[in-house]
Amino acid sequence: MATQGIPSSNVITTITDLRGEVVVEVRQNEYVVISDGSVTSYTHHRNIQLVDGSTWNPSMLRASPPIHVGVCEICRNRDVSLFRRRRRTHGLVAMSRARICASCGALCCPAHRRLCSDNLWRCRRCSRRHGIKNILRPLFFERIED
């Protein structure tokens, strides 16, 4: 007859954003089952889907190489729009796929960044400003070479 004791370990990983708000809590439970003199250990992980499409759980931090996650600030702070339905998400993105905006320094997921003409990654808002600046500069300034 199998007997299952209480969980031998419960790990709760809490991820917060820049304001200290809890983004997500991911739990991991480990149970030990003793049956007929044999001891079996079970670990229960809960994966979450990141905004870039991959899945993640806290045990991936102990992998080689570790998979770190960051919070896309634009996903967390969606603007209200009359034309599109935009919901706030947890905004977690794998750091291998995230980029930092060259202008404002915000961490951006693949959906909220653009590669600009100067070969730097920028968020959508800074990318728009950079494009307008590049269009207006030749109208007001002229390059003179000596």
Features:
about 150 residues, elongated, alpha+beta, about 15% helix, four-stranded antiparallel β-sheet
Q: What is the count of helical runs? A: 2
Percentage of residues in helical conformation: 10-25%
> Separation of termini?
92 Å
Q: Globular, elongated, flat, extended or rod-shaped: what is the shape?
A: elongated
Report mean pLDDT, rounded to a whole number. 83
- Uncertain spans: none
The gist of it:
The protein is an alpha+beta fold and about 150 residues long. It has helices spanning about 75, 125-140; strands spanning about 5, 10-15, 20-35, 40-45, 50, 55, 70, 90-95, 100, 105-110, 115, 120-125.
Your description of this structure?
The protein is an alpha+beta fold. The chain has helices spanning 73-76, 124-140; strands spanning 3-4, 9-16, 22-35, 38-45, 48-49, 55-56, 69-71, 92-94, 99-100, 107-108, 113-115, 121-123. The strands form 5 sheets. Strands 1, 2, 3 and 4 form a 4-stranded antiparallel beta sheet that branches. A two-stranded antiparallel ribbon has the order 5-6. The chain has a two-stranded antiparallel sheet with strand order 7-8. The N and C termini lie far apart (92 Å).
Ordered list of secondary-structure elements with their pairings:
Layout: E1 3-4, E2 9-16, E3 22-35, E4 38-45, E5 48-49, E6 55-56, E7 69-71, H1 73-76, E8 92-94, E9 99-100, E10 107-108, E11 113-115, E12 121-123, H2 124-140
Antiparallel strand pairs: 1-3, 2-3, 3-4, 5-6, 7-8, 9-10, 11-12
